[in-house]
What we know:
- The complex is a heterodimer of chains A (235) and B (275).
- Chain A is mainly α.
- Helix content of chain A is 78%, strand content 0%.
- Chain A has helices spanning 2-6, 16-48, 53-68, 71-92, 101-126, 130-138, 143-173, 185-196, 199-228.
- In chain A, helix 6 packs antiparallel against helix 7 (143-173).
- The model of chain A has no long low-confidence stretch (mean pLDDT 89).
- Chain B has a single domain, classed as Orthogonal Bundle (MetI-like fold), CATH 1.10.3720.
- Chain B is flat.
Amino acid sequence: xQNLFSLLSYGANGWGDELLAGTLITIALSLAILPVGLAAxxxxxxxxxxxxxxxxxxxxxxxxxxxxxxELLTLFLVYYGAQSGVTAIAHMFGAQVEISPFVxxxxxxxxxxxSYASEVFLSAFRGIPHGQYEAATALGLRRGVTMRLxxxxxxVRLALPGLSNLWLNVMKDTALVSVITLNDLLRQTTVAVxxxxxxxxFYTVAxxxxxxxxxxxxxxxxxxxVWSSRGVSHR
Amino acid sequence: xxxxxxxGHLPLRRWRDDVTxxxxxxxxxxxxxxxxxxxxxxxxxxxxxxxxxxGRVISGFLLTIRLVVSSVAIGAVIxxxxxxxxxxxxxxxxxxxxxxSYFFRGTPLVAQLFLIYYGAGEFVGVxxxxxxxxxxxxxxxxxxxxxxxxxxAYQSEILSGAVRNVPRGQREAASxxxxxxxxxxxxxxxxxxxxxxxxxYGNEVxxxxxxxxxxxxxxxxxxxxxxxxxxxxxxxxxxxxxxAVFYLVLVELLGRAVDAIExxxxxxxxxxxxx
Lengths: 235, 275
């Protein structure tokens, strides 16, 4: 046992530094996906409640596709698809371009997150009483101002529980990006396993690191939730 | 009807009055993408490829279904004691069940799969002595085991949540009638709990269909695995598109089935819809 844990030491003999580097990449990727996915999801939710039936259908098709196709498959399609597309374009200019797994992961998981997030935003929109819009109109607020100062703060509070689940899923899904050779936590663990022949120990350690990340994320979400529900009476 | 659109209820509004250029552009883009996908897939399905790889795609699809059905079924069995633990008044049992579900819900499925598949390889001797090596030697079995344990965690949350959701009075009334505890559970609590649980269960099956693609990483030749194999031979992306279509159809069919079942089992509480 003593022996096993010395494998986690920091430096040339242990794998602690590699695992830490991988963990940082996992965190960085999760954080990078979040703003992209949430912003896109918000606009798709707006599209879903548009007056225009065509915009509604277009948004519906988007969510149907990206919620129905496995994340791993979306990732491959983005990675290899973009690879061949960009290579073709780059060839025309005689350049060499490579798609980084990080960017491919960000785009693919961002697509998935946005389609799920749009559903959460949509039901949050439905939870805001009609009177809020009417009151804002009665006060003479313009549409943009109404959205920013009246609707959005309430939307955050209503959407947060749903979004926090999605956020945890995103963090777990980043493990898939290791398949297209991103040096995240899972891949670094696999490297360590290949060198030490201790799969059970190292994958258990990786699982616990993911668990700690999930817990930390929950705490962060809870903070935001408390912030967003200030001024709301608790019955 | 959404909040934004319901502001003006004009009775004589026609469908095309609301159509905007943006909407037309978006739908045209989707149409182009759709035609592109159909074209790419039809190219991939030329007679030569079809005879060479058609069988692989079908067998992969069937294996995906087998993976999902067996892991969801085994997971359902495992989830019963875990859900019972979650509902138990015994603190220690409750904590144990919660730890199980927290671990499997808080870590990536791929990591769990690696833990079981590669981890098992470390204990060949133990498994051989126990006569279990034939099971762990097969990547498909390892995938089913890890999927089942994973979905059991989610299913136990669904089940225990649904049981908790049944009003207390139902149970009290049943025991006032002198019904046995098991009869109460079977005939009073579970039928009502299933109504709340159906939709989350359906979602869980859909998530399992999608998650099962992960098995391809440990050499299982499910739909995703076969597609990866074919891609490695042909470098033809359209096979990935074809696989995506298969997954989409499967997921959509499941969604429709859940809708139909829900309509059927809630027919006694559904309000008559007014025009």
